[in-house]
C-alpha cells in the first residue's frame, strides 16, 4: 500500500517495483532503427534520478527538464518553500511534451518529507534497491541532484546554526545514507557565492580560484598561478555552508573512488519555463532582483530600490551574470550525463554555470520595461551589505567538459516572467 506522503503522477511507465532487475524493457524492432543514444534516453530503464528540493525554483525546472529528457524522477521535498501544485504542473508540462514528441512519459514520484528524515529516506531507498547476494549494494537510483537547502543570505547571518544544521549536517547524514545504499553519483547545488570577495578582485572567476586541493593553472598573464586549497573572503554563513559542503564532498570523493561528485556553482538564475507555469517561490518575501522587479510590475511594491549606483561599472549599478533557469536546469543534466558516462577529469569536479556575460541592474530594468511595455519606477539606494559590484562567470570549463552552454538571453528570461505573471503566478497554490 502506498504511503500517504507519496504521490505518483499518472504515467504510462510502470513505476519501479520494490525489487527491479536492471534490464531495459526494450522492443527489439524499435531498438535497431534509430540513434541508440536517443532510444536509450526514451526507454524506461528502471533507473531513477532522485531530486531533493525538486519542487523549488531551480529544482522544479530541473525536474521538468529531466522528465523531458526521458529520466524517471523521484522528488523529495518537504514543501516548506514550495507547493504540491508545482508537482502537478511539472507532470502536466512533461506529459504535454511527450505527447507532442510521441515519446513515452517517464515515471514521476513525490516523497513529501524532509531530506533530513533519515528513516523516511531509508524506507524510500529500500524500494529501489537491486537485490544482490554479494558485492556492494546497488540501486535503481542512478544519481542524485541535491537542491534542498536554505538560501537566504540575510537570514543566515541572523541564524547561522539553522543554516549549518540543514545545509551542512544534513548533507553529511544524507551522503552517509546514500553511500550505504550504493548511490554514489551526486550533483550538488553550489553557488558563485563561494568566490566571495574574489568577485571584485578583477580576476576572471575561474573554478580554480576556489579549490579544495592546491591547484596550478594558467593565469591571465599566461604564467602559472598556484592557488592553495581553501576559501577567500566569503561574506556570509550561507556562502560558507556552500563552500563547506563542497569541501566535504571533495574529501568524500578523494576517500572513495566509487563516488562521482559534481558541484555546480550557479551565478544568478532568473526567468522561468516558457509555459509560464513554473516560477520563483511566491511564498517568500523576495530579495533577489527579478522577483522584486516582478512585485513592482504587479503594483505590490511602489518602486525598485537600486542598491548601489556608484559601483565601478559602466552605468554605476551592479553587474551580474544572469542565467536563464531553463539553461541552468539543462546544465544539471549535462553534469549528470558526464558523471554517469565517467567523462569527468576527476571524481570531484566543480563547474561554473553562468553565461560568461554580465548585465547591470539598470540593463535588467530597461530590458524588462521593453519586453513588458510597462514602466518600472526605480530609486537609487545605498549599497546592500555584503554585495559585490560585479560577479561574472568564466564559463569555459562547463562548455568544454560538460558540452553545455547557455542558449537563452536576458530578454527571453524577461519574456518568460511576463508569461508567468499572465498565467502562472495567480493560481498558486
Ligand atoms: C544573491 C545572493 C547569493 C545567491 C544568489 C542566487 C545576496 C547578498 N547574495 O546574489 O548568495 O547565490 O542571490 O540567487 O543575497 N538588487 C537591487 N534591488 C533589489 C534587489 C537586488 O538593486 O531589490 C541588486 C543587488 O544589490 C545586486 C543585484 O541586484 O547588485 C543582484 O541581486 P540578487 O538578485 O539579490 O543577487 P546577488 O546579490 O548577486
From TrEMBL:
<dbReference type="Pfam" id="PF01370">
    <property type="entry name" value="Epimerase"/>
</dbReference>
<dbReference type="InterPro" id="IPR036291">
    <property type="entry name" value="NAD(P)-bd_dom_sf"/>
</dbReference>
<feature type="domain" description="NAD-dependent epimerase/dehydratase">
    <location>
        <begin position="49"/>
        <end position="342"/>
    </location>
</feature>
<keyword id="KW-0413">Isomerase</keyword>
<dbReference type="InterPro" id="IPR005886">
    <property type="entry name" value="UDP_G4E"/>
</dbReference>
<protein>
    <recommendedName>
        <fullName>NAD-dependent epimerase/dehydratase domain-containing protein</fullName>
    </recommendedName>
</protein>
<dbReference type="InterPro" id="IPR001509">
    <property type="entry name" value="Epimerase_deHydtase"/>
</dbReference>
<keyword id="KW-0520">NAD</keyword>
